[in-house]
Design brief:
alpha/beta, inorganic pyrophosphatase (n-terminal core), Diaminopimelate Epimerase, Chain A, domain 1, six-stranded parallel β-sheet, 13 helices, globular
Length: about 325
């Protein structure tokens, strides 16, 4: 029924919502759907609950994203209330869209989830598969199920490719399968510029970003007993180095580059009024999704997750250090 209604000739009002602080997969999959639904002649809006990193402003269609703010709040409310369909993309809980969720209760729109995170919140229609490497893969499947793969052009393919490479670490993670490479092959056939995409994603480091990284590496602490590394950036650090959103991306990965380390943690204080954002990455069997859900009100995937604490940075780190001894066996025998 959903496919036939959206594939039909009657124009629909569609709203696309990624999670707050959208990453490459959230933006890539959302922008791909924006272009796709426009090709079906629907009235489509992509609404983000927060700003996104300058790192992704080169993406096709990024200028069309409506960011929730005091100036746009009334416009966004009207678009959500008047919509026929609302797509929730790359997240599994309404807490991930901050103040946008208050408008949903005023809308009679059908609500559709497209996501690959575990324990998804229930919606009217669900395209959920926790085994896939990226939500962008599910968007490709969604378009395929509608028998519209011919609608995928270079713009859509570029967005989906960015989503896949960012959520797989350039095909390094265990979630990568033969289907991942099959879909990427189909996207390449659309004429995407792989070299240009790689340069945008992998090599665009401004000086301030490198200085923030240097600061984080100087603070890096290693706990050999628990095969764990952690570091942090506080508001003073980013104010001193003219921080731009996205400048802390990738810091979390450096801990896992250390020999014998299986658990890396990054604490981020964007400003003194905001909760502390914590990122978790792991190797092998140590499940950071469970760890984040149990102790930090967050979640994610087995080897990549995040959470929040409404405490100071020092209190957040102390809380973590008090917890970690309970996972001695899990960390020591993680492979």
């Amino acid at each position: 029924m959903l496919f036939s209604n959206i594939n039909g000739t009657k124009k629909k009002k569609i709203v696309l919502i990624p999670h707050m602080n959208p990453d490459g997969d959230a933006l890539g999959s959302s922008l791909a759907l924006l272009f796709y639904f426009r090709k079906l002649n629907h009235d489509v809006d992509l609404i983000s609950p927060t700003e996104y990193s300058d790192f992704f402003r080169w993406l096709p269609g990024s200028n069309d994203i409506i960011i929730l703010s005091e100036k746009t709040e009334l416009l966004i409310k009207k678009k959500i209330v008047d919509s026929d369909y609302i797509f929730f993309i790359d997240f599994n809980n309404l807490s991930r869209i901050k103040n946008l969720k208050k408008f949903l209760f005023c809308s009679k729109a059908k609500k559709i989830l497209i996501d690959h995170h575990p324990y998804p919140f229930y919606f009217d229609f669900m395209f959920s598969d926790i085994t896939v490497a990226a939500t962008s893969i599910l968007v490709f499947r969604f378009i395929s199920n509608m028998k519209n793969l011919d609608k995928i052009d270079k713009q859509i393919a570029t967005c989906l490719y960015v989503g896949i490479i960012t959520d797989t670490g350039f095909f390094r993670f265990p979630s990568v399968t033969s289907e991942t490479h099959f879909i990427v092959g189909k996207l390449i056939e659309k004429g995407i510029d792989i070299e240009n995409i790689y340069n945008h994603i992998h090599e665009k480091y401004n000086v301030n970003r490198l200085k923030i990284l240097s600061k984080a590496l100087k603070k890096l602490q290693v706990i050999d007993k628990y095969r764990t590394a952690y570091t942090s950036i506080n508001s003073s650090d980013i104010n001193f180095y003219s921080y731009q959103k996205g400048d802390t991306e990738g810091i979390i990965t450096y801990g896992l580059k250390i020999k014998n380390i299986v658990f890396s943690v990054f604490f981020f204080e964007e400003n003194e009024r905001s909760p502390i954002r914590i990122s978790f990455r792991s190797k092998g069997n140590f499940d950071v999704n469970i760890f984040a859900r149990k102790h930090f009100g967050g979640g994610g995937h087995k080897n990549a997750a995040g959470g929040l604490l409404k405490t100071s940075l020092s209190e957040s780190i102390e809380y973590f250090l008090n917890i970690i001894p309970n996972y001695y066996k899990n960390l020591m025998f993680s492979i």
